[in-house]
Amino acid sequence: MRNSWNKRLITLPTAAVILLSSFAGGSAYAASSFSDLQKVPQAQQIIALQEAGIVKGAKDGKFNPQSILTNAQAIQLTVDTFGLNIDHLNFFKKPEASDSFPKASNDAWYSDALVIAAYSNLNLPRDLDPNAPATRSSLASLLILAGQQQGDLPVFRLIPVKIADESSIPDGRSGLMQEALAFDLLELDAKQNINPNESLTRAQAAEMVYTIALKGHILQK
User: Fold this and answer.
1) Which of 91, 16, 97 is closest to 52 using CA atoms?
2) CA 129 vs CA 71, 104, 119, 132, 181: distances in Å
3) 3-state class (DSSP) for residue 94
4) Which spans in the chain are helix H?
5) What is the dihedral of CA 67, 68, 71, 76, to 10 degrees?
6) Eight-state DSSP code of residue 57
7) What are the extents of the domains in the chain?
8) Which of 106, 130, 151, 221 lies in disulfide reach of 96, CB 3.0 to 4.6 Å?
């Protein structure tokens, strides 16, 4: 879905012209480097993503690395990372975020990204709350599904690794969690738990995106 197609009737703009970034949360962008990355372990990854245009700063120049990532930010981040768009689709009526996700606001900064995600086969639940925290499994699943559909990531079958908290993985994500381990997006803790339902800080999310961007050759070391 990276290519632009000739469009008829009503279409949506590409992810490249969405005004609000994955981590901006509705704030204006700042061109300078983030001012709050001192002593942040993921600082170099965050800077690399900023230089690649995948994450952008708020007008106060901060990244807020310890803030919790929301579902809306995770979706926008996925859209921006893989350049998702729906330019190839035609609509008789302009689609709105609330058509697919009733809890979404059609006037919110994330609305375009949610519409794109809804038509990108990312297996998002209809009852998605854009403002609720994203989890380790939800972000990893989004990145893997988007990357594979774009052809940036391989699709393969794996010999399953034992995951002690397998029963806590949300329905439909067990295979994706095996892939998340294979792609080094997630790792097991000392008790062999993957902790799929833990929330993520924005710094932790950036580290995952950096990893998948390298795997998909979107970034080069």
Assistant:
1) 16
2) 7, 7, 17, 5, 26
3) coil
4) 43-51, 71-82, 97-100, 111-118, 136-150, 174-182, 202-215
5) 30
6) B
7) 15-215
8) 106
Quote the DSSP letter at residue 113: H
Beta bridge partners of residue 68, listed in sequence order: 201
CB 211 within 8 A of CB 140: no
DSSP string spanning 154-186?
------PPP-TTGGGSPTT-HHHHHHHHHTTSS
pLDDT digits 0-9 by tens, 71-130: 999 999 999 999 999 988 888 889 999 999 999 999 999 999 999 999 999 999 999 999
pLDDT in tens, 19-75: 334 555 544 334 448 999 999 999 999 999 999 989 976 778 899 999 999 999 999
Q: Cα(208)–Cα(221) distance, rounded to whole angstroms? A: 15
Q: What is the pLDDT of residue 9?
A: 36
Task: Give pTM, 2 decimals.
Answer: 0.85
Which is more confident, 5 or 130?
Answer: 130
